[in-house]
Amino acid sequence: MHHAEREAEERLDTGHNRTSVIIYEQPLNERIRGLLRIEFLFSAIATRLIGQSEWDSRAVLSCTIEVTDILSRYDIKADLIKELERHYALLVRLQTSPEVDAMRLNETISRLNRLLTTLKDPLCQPGQTFRRDELVNAIKQRSGIPGGTCNFDMPAYHYWLNCPAKVRIDQLNRWLEDLRIVEEGVAMTLKLVRESATPMDAIAPDGFYHRTLEPSGACSLIRIAIPREQGLFPEISAGKHRFTLRFMEQPNTSERPVQTNRDVKFELHLCALTP
Q1: In 3D, which of 220, 232, 221 has the Cα closest to residue 22?
Q2: What whole-number distance in Å separates Cα of residue 55 and Cα of residue 48?
Q3: Which domains does the chain have, with CATH numbers?
Q4: pLDDT tens track for 134-177
């Protein structure tokens, strides 16, 4: 599944019926926050990369520039290594448990080991090829200006965008090549974080819910699943020790949302990978 402002299409079991739900996520630390943003951008890239139009290529380039901006602003590579090492150590301890699927566990450990080996290699410099490209740097300089990459401002970009779709897609894939290790590492980390939760049913009386978190601080991500048909979304306020939910209604986007006075049933996931 792909922050309290992000939705993903999933299925929720409600008795004998299956109904569409929206998943809202709230990170509880900066590391997970950064990884979620990168995941969001790679999801957008994957959706538009196969597109044939100029606007698809523009969207991919814009998102890739944002990914590399995050990588240059924060040491995402080091954060990924720390997260993957933590998960690796916890999963290795589970190998002695008779209750786990040994084959699946060993496959996951092997994949983690491969990712860590690649990321720790000094030659692994994600985004380096993209950042060194002259056309990319020209686009990046103009991207902060509203409409700054218009055809009369950037004839070189206009020319590239009018190349055959296969030429553009092949070039985009080459630019993305050394970023794929980040994409895979982020996907693996967030998958393990999300799967660490045991879903629980909960009720928010009059649309309000409060919960204290374990003092260990192991919880790194809160996920809320609520049926789309309820017409509600949660505003999540969270810290290391507690969080609150207010389920809001906004029938008309021209008006401010208000807290519902209904009792709201939802599914809660507290994601904390602990041994």
Answers
A1: 232
A2: 9
A3: 9-29+197-271 (2.60.440.10), 50-190 (1.10.3900.10)
A4: 999 999 999 889 999 999 999 999 999 999 999 999 999 999 99
